[in-house]
Amino acid sequence: MTELKSAKDIPIGGIIPAPGNSRSYRTGEWRSQRPVWIPEGCVHCLICWVYCPDNAIEVEDGKMKGIDYSHCKGCGICVRECPRKEKALRLEREA
Amino acid sequence: MGSRQHVAMTGNEAVAHAMRQINPDVVAAYPITPQTDIVQFFSQFVADGMVKTEFVTVESEHSAMSATIGAAASGARAMTATSSQGLALMWEMLHIASGYRLPIVMPVVNRTLSGPINIHCDHSDTMGALTTGWIQLYSESAQEAYDNMIQAVRIAEHPDVQLPVMVCQDGFITSHGIESLEVLSDEEVAQFVGEYKPVYSVLDVDNPVTVGPLVLPDYLFEMKFQQAKAMEASRRVILEVGKEYARLTGREYGFLEGYKLEDAERVIVVLSSTAGTTRAVVDELRRKGEKVGLLKPRVIRPFPANELREALSQATAVAILDRAETFSTQGGPLFCEIRAAFYDAPTRPLMRNYIFGLGGRDVGTAQIESVFADLAADLARGSVKTPVSYLDVRE
């Protein structure tokens, strides 16, 4: 948890004067369910990467590498769109 | 126009004239009676090339305020104008304009809210907007509406304020009545309002900003606190701008205008055009030796509690006239706030409330005289018999 600033130390009107800082906002905390990646069933088609609205599919050298749970909101679109269905991505309830 | 002039104009013409001289970057508006003239006159100025304004015709007042907000967030000096249902349709956007701290100036021509539908004056539209975070200035005459428009730009845009301002005048009574007023030269107005330098602008590519993000419980409260502090800061700015305007025009504006208050025992508090009627009655009763006076608030947001207490300190009986109902059964909005302002006062006058003039019900000198007579009866009795009554209604 970052230290919260006082009213006199923040911009007025909800303005965000520093661009590109949404990465530091951990929206993954909102999640009620999580996609779980099963590497052995994945064909690396990257359809999940295309569909993910939160840019939470981690890709390296053209291959699926994992899920960024700091920003994944658990919407389940990746699971729904995965052509391998339950073999590569599965949706689980958060504990 | 190159010089000051005395002109005959309606309140709406005076406001449109002020807008032409302010020459805003963007005006987005939708016509509604009795505001229509303002937008109509102004669109003529646009068509005639007399302003550099981008004029946006929109399909509703919700869109008018939305487009004005978008323009203001882009760093433009942006305006719109409305009345009644139009203001009501803007409602959620009113909060967004103030919450985003956009210094929009909006003339509002007061008209009753439906239903039943009625196009005439009362203050139910802007009195309902008291909690929207806008500064509110009320104008008795076309002159005041004109003067308030020009000052509103400076108040709204002051770096310590950054809040939107409504400039109110009474529908038809002021908006369509022709009066003589003094207008400044175009150069004087341009110089007084100055060049707008926005604090933030989404078009400033060197300093990119995000406007309108989601703000959760960890910061939203602080932003509302900032708005409250800005409203507090506007008190000083309103007075400073009023003094500067007085140096230019000889017409000084503060929070209130008192008339023959110095030794007044009975005082009527009333906004806008009815203050003119009351002033005539005060003169008439003064000729008969009665110690009566008038107090006309100009600013309701921020609420001038200290100034009201000070101005009414010598009064023994006060009638507060509200041209709007709250349906609380405890009186109109002005009455409730003025009574609250006296809670900590060492001495309190007798105080009573009249709801009056709803839906454009005419208020003449006879009605105002009856209020002063009621106050005299209260003083003789030593108490207020009816705290809230309805002036000239057929019960």
Q: Oligomeric status of the shown chains?
A: heterodimer
* Highest-level CATH class of the domain at 30-93 in chain A: Alpha Beta
CATH first level of the largest domain in chain B: Alpha Beta
Query: CATH homologous superfamily of the largest domain in chain B?
Result: Thiamin diphosphate (ThDP)-binding fold, Pyr/PP domains
Order of helices and strands of chain B: EHEHEHEHHEHEHEEHHEEHEEHEHEHE
The overall average pLDDT of chain B, rounded, is 97
- Kindly report the CATH topology of the largest domain in chain B: Rossmann fold
Label the structural class of chain A: alpha+beta
Radius of gyration of chain A: 16 Å
Strand numbers in spatial order across the main sheet of chain A: 1-4
Radius of gyration of chain B: 21 Å
CATH architecture of the largest domain in chain B: 3-Layer(aba) Sandwich
Determine the number of helices of chain B (DSSP H or I, runs of at least 4 residues): 13
- Helical content band of chain B: 25-40%
Q: What number of structural domains do the residues of chain B give?
A: 2
Largest sheet descriptor of chain B: 6 strands, mixed
Description of the molecule:
The complex is a heterodimer of chains A (95) and B (395). Helix content of chain A is 11%, strand content 20%. The model of chain A has no long low-confidence stretch (mean pLDDT 93). Chain A has 2 helices and 4 strands, in the order E-H-E-E-H-E. In chain A, the strands form 2 sheets. Chain A has a two-stranded antiparallel ribbon with strand order 1-4. Chain A has helices at residues 47-51, 77-81, and strands at 33-37, 57-60, 63-67, 89-93. Chain A is an alpha+beta fold. Chain A has a domain at 30-93: Alpha-Beta Plaits, CATH 3.30.70. Chain B is 40% helix and 18% strand. Chain B has 13 helices and 15 strands. Chain B has helices spanning 11-22, 36-47, 61-73, 84-89, 91-99, 124-127, 142-157, 186-193, 220-249, 274-287, 305-311, 333-341, 365-381; strands at 5-10, 26-29, 54-57, 78-79, 105-110, 135-139, 165-170, 178-183, 256-259, 266-269, 292-297, 299-301, 317-322, 350-355, 388-390. In chain B, the strands form 4 sheets. A 6-stranded mixed sheet of chain B has the order 9-11-10-13-14-15, sandwiched between helices. In chain B, strands 5-7-6-12 form a 4-stranded mixed sheet. In chain B, helix 3 packs parallel to helix 5 (91-99). The longest helix of chain B is centred in the middle third of the chain and has 30 residues, at 220-249. In chain B, 50% of the residues are buried. The A-B interface holds A 4-7, 10-17, 19 and B 99-102, 162, 199-200, 207-213, 215, 218-219, 222-223, 225-226, 229-230.
